[in-house]
């Protein structure tokens, strides 16, 4: 029986660049809780932003934030991983040297940003609706960093990801997160760490869990559960890490509720290899 469902946001629950959740989720999440199934949003996004997205149902769910560096339930921190400060400074210096590139430095409650353009500030503040603190230099960063991300306005091309991997892949994981973001994550940090934090806390086994994702920063989470779903638009490497695929997540959640948590009763589409 299913007891825990972990879901990525951008490209999974939030399709085609959407910044608001499908309305069905505000009905599904309380019903999952009533059925004894914990829903956890798992994203590279900050906690404040995720909490705002799920505002009507925050008490019914858990949050795996910053690609697993922060896990929160009932507004209490269950797990937190701190990013290396020297590495943070080196990434910021590299961003400052690279034309067009921007960065965000995540803390528990907000992003430190040093916008080169009004476009970037507007994207984070008014489109994605993140809590941000604008700074003039790295010396103004006083709170622990949880994750670094780089924004590439022209899109994350193969050449672009190779550039950042060549600079930093010997010191941390460098992975794509959507079409314009690159995440820099400590080797020991991933969404599966957050998932296991919840599994341990609630005594839930891997074969009682489902995960949904679409990007390379979801792979560890997909591999940490028995029932993993890649979205149909996922890259081949992501689908190869999943058991099944789905065009949308909400119908699968509804089917799980209708089957009373017995996923074996549901007809599923195997992931393409």
Describe the SSE topology:
Blueprint: E1 4-7, H1 25-34, E2 38-42, H2 47-53, E3 61-65, E4 70-73, E5 76-80, H3 85-97, E6 102-106, E7 111-113, H4 118-127, E8 132-134, E9 147-151, H5 158-168, E10 173-176, E11 181-185, H6 191-202, E12 209-213, H7 219-223, E13 227-231, H8 236-239, E14 244-246, H9 250-258, E15 269-270
Parallel strand pairs: 1-2, 1-12, 2-3, 7-8, 12-13, 13-14
Antiparallel strand pairs: 3-4, 4-5, 6-7, 6-9, 9-11, 10-11, 14-15
Helix pairs in contact: 1-9
Q: What are its keywords?
A:
single chain, 273 residues, alpha/beta, Rossmann fold, Hypothetical Protein, Haloacid Dehalogenase-like Hydrolase, Chain: A, domain 2, nine-stranded mixed sheet, six-stranded mixed sheet, 9 helices
For the termini, the CA-CA separation is 27 Å
SS element count, helices: 9
Q: How does the overall form come out from the CA principal axes? A: globular
- Tally of distinct domains: 2
The average pLDDT is: 95
Q: In CATH's first tier, which class of the largest domain applies?
A: Alpha Beta
**Percent range for helical residues?**
25-40%
The assigned CATH architecture of the largest domain is 3-Layer(aba) Sandwich
Name of the CATH homologous superfamily of the largest domain: HAD superfamily/HAD-like
List how many beta strands DSSP finds: 15
In spatial order, strands of the major sheet run: 5-4-3-2-1-12-13-14-15
Q: Quickly give the structural class.
A: alpha/beta
Strand content: 15-25%
Largest sheet, strands/sense/barrel: 9 strands, mixed
CATH topology of the largest domain: Rossmann fold
What are the low-pLDDT stretches, counting only 5+ consecutive residues below 50?
A: none
Order of helices and strands: EHEHEEEHEEHEEHEEHEHEHEHE
The gyration radius over C-alpha positions equals 18 Å
GO molecular function: hydrolase activity
Pfam family, one: Hydrolase_3
Protein name: HAD family hydrolase
Organism: Blautia ammoniilytica
